[in-house]
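Sat 14:20. Reprocessing the chain from the morning session after the first attempt stalled halfway. Input below, unchanged.
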Amino acid sequence: MSDIKIPDESLRPALEALSIRDPDVAQAFKDCGLPPVRSQEPGFDGLIRMIISQQVSVQSARAILARLIGQVDEITPENILALDDEGMKLAGLSRPKQRYARGLAADVQDGRLNLDRLPDLPDDEVIEQLIQVKGIGRWTCEVYLLFALQRQDVMPAADLALQEGMRLIKGLDARPSPKEMYTLSEGWRPYRSAAARFLWHYYHHTGIA
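Finished this time. Tokens:
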């Protein structure tokens, strides 16, 4: 993903619609404007990048990804399966993430997971397919839906930055739980993807991140 932060004009209609129905969003949108452009290519490469990004900072994920690409040149199932433990370690992948990456590669290579079919499936079926892969939880499924498949009504409710963004925008005393996130964002349908993008943006805009 690029470091150049270009405002994502494609989000404006959804955020303007949300601003009409939610005064808290309206004020926050007035304060910090549009989120930057952000996307992820669908497929194996994109999922490996998301696995790398789990529970590490953006900077750490970028460094690990750069080292992994240095090891394999191209992120494919074949190249991941051919990379030995030492190569994985040099790239900076933890032992669990080494297992997850290899497991995903084996599932794709052996045909247990057909990534080419996912764009044609509804959101819940995409999650059902992906969550069977060890190391891919609901957060990764929802982020894949949002950024790789560009689905319009997704809320990765377990994301801590989103929870903190919701706390700030809504003036809550405590960070909401994933269940509370789904409840709080219910009124934002069918624009929850734009809302999620905006929550990340607002969280970073506050300078807390």
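Residues 9-38+154-205 form a domain with the Endonuclease Iii, domain 2 fold (CATH 1.10.1670.40).
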